[in-house]
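re the bet — no i am not wrong, look at it urself. input seq straight from the record:
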Amino acid sequence: DMRIANYAAVINATTNQYSVYADFCNFIIANAPVGTFTLADNRVSLGSVNDARFHHCNMLNNLPAIYLPNAHPQGLGAGNSQFQWIGDNQSIISGFSRGIYSTGSFANPACTQANWSLCDVTESTFNCITGILFSNANSVQILGNTLDADPAGFATNAPHIGIQVDAGSAQVNTRVFIARNAITYITQPFQQIGIQVNNCKGNSNYVLDNDIDNCDVGLNLMNRNRVNNTANGGAGLHFECNTFNTCTQDVNVACSGTNCGASVQGIASVQAATYSTPFGPTWPISAYNAYSNSAANGNNDDVQARTDQVVGFSYRYHTNDYNVANLTALVPYEMSQSTNPAPFNAVTLIPQAGNNPYDSAFCDLLNILTPSLPVIQINFDGGKEEYLNMRALYNAMIDGGDTEGLRNNVLYSSYSQAYQLYLQLLSQSPALSDEVMIAAIQEETDIPASLLTIILAANPSAAKNPEIFKALTDRNNPLDAYQMSQIMLGRLSTSPKELMEQDMGLYLTSIDKAYSDALVYFNKNSDENVLSTLEGLLLSDYVFEHRKTLAELHLQSGDMYYGHALMQNLADYFGLSAEVAASLEIYADLMLLHRQIIDRPDMQMSTAEKEYLLGIANADACGNGPYAHMLLVQYAAHNEEMPVCMEHRSMHLNSTTYSENTTVVYPNPIEGDFALLKLPLPCLENTTVQLFDVNGRNITNQTLQIGQQEM
């Protein structure tokens, strides 16, 4: 019905001028006999379009046709575009495989305020297999929508998903706000998921105040939805004030890739009331999600964290939130052994002490409207002051304020100095840094195992850190079972160091929220001081993601060569590896090239530039490849598809693994007590896996849940 491509005028979408404006439009397919017509396209297609707005529009597919599970028919299909779908409760999209499907970041960053694009989908009704799907999008707001099953009589052969937001590219810092949607599914032959968020790391994102009914999984949080497990670990995805009814499993936190257990797999490390609350860490009240409390899935139906896959988190709850019988699913040492809990993946329940007068009103008083710029500035300043004060105390406490000196003492000590080093490390416990503990673990010939055990046992954070756990398992002379058990007791306690990290994470969450509010504000209001204001709302000297954002701002809207230098120096500034430095340098080069192409009158690239981008697209499908591919498609009429990437990534560095139709066991042969099994596809039903040794003895039986791909 409508196809618009390659239109990215320098017009801000918040004025009354748009590249596309569709008002009260109906896009309808009707009256075609079954079997005589195959709908295999979009009703509306946007390709590299900025500032498109659809207001009070309907899309109806009245053909009882068979859906293709991962493709067409689609209502609105958008590639590298920015758009707003505004329903005002008068819009319906019905009968499609995907109601709205958007992939890729916006085409021309010079077209929007702060060179930042926001896609809105609000107050509309969806009756589709997948209602709303954003893949590799920049930033999205999905507010006040109603999502139900597809029309009766339509043949379906795919899982139903209400809302899905994925950020597959390593360099996409997706900002996600999903609030006040109502999702209800009737019984379907395939799995039903209410909301799924995948790989949206690096920011404080929210799934807030949604009603989710009759789903197999209400909220599916997959892979990297958090900041690194450091002092800033409180930032990441938060789920608060959601209501679940008759879902088989309400919340699932898991990893589907081959690098599960890394420090960025999971969600924000502190789940509490963090949105629109002025109280900060001193008022840590319940996250106030209301769960189904059914017995359909044993004790795993409230919140199930795949503790062999993701880094754990603390969840603050009120006794009214839970059926007591379902609490055991969250306590790591009472979990079913089928989940194979790793010690650093503990999910800690924190009961809320007493009756807080603000509890009952917290969810009712949530304000999802964008504040004014002065209010945003006040919120940021308050959070920044508290964060920096606590950070100074934290830095003085960790390793006695001299991490580099203490680490050097460990690295250059000898066996004859082991006792003196032991006393020095013990005197700084339980506030040893991860770097110092890892260095001590690796000094196998200089620090006796007995002294190392006491040191690590005195630091509870050692039992919860994946890098420390890996260093222990990588030793040539591993600790024995008793020594490991003494260290792992740390998962049952919390040190002052960890409490301060949680509090700093909560302050960082409030800072991130202020920055996101500012981006939304500038997307809706013209202001000539955009760059300076946003630059002032970043803790660029302390937080990796903020300094990276600062570099991106300058690359796109300020001094692009200064931004390029900032991006290139990120790895050195934060002490990251040479591989990370190389990846970031390529990303900086891509952003600089993008800006240079936009500034050319014909927006064309040279043959050498095309070959450079093709090399990156083909060699780095899990990292910078998608960005290079987008530039080729947008500015060089490239029509080849990207190689499919299977997740195998940390927060900064990405290596590529291509999917194969085989079951993988690693290591093979199995050595020691650990092995990873990966199936070619996620399970379509609960599946029992039996493990036998070479003599045919049954070692263990474990269950893979619906949607799980690894154990």
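see?? The chain has a mean pLDDT of 76. told u. also Residues 89 and 508 are 35 Å apart (CA to CA). so pay up
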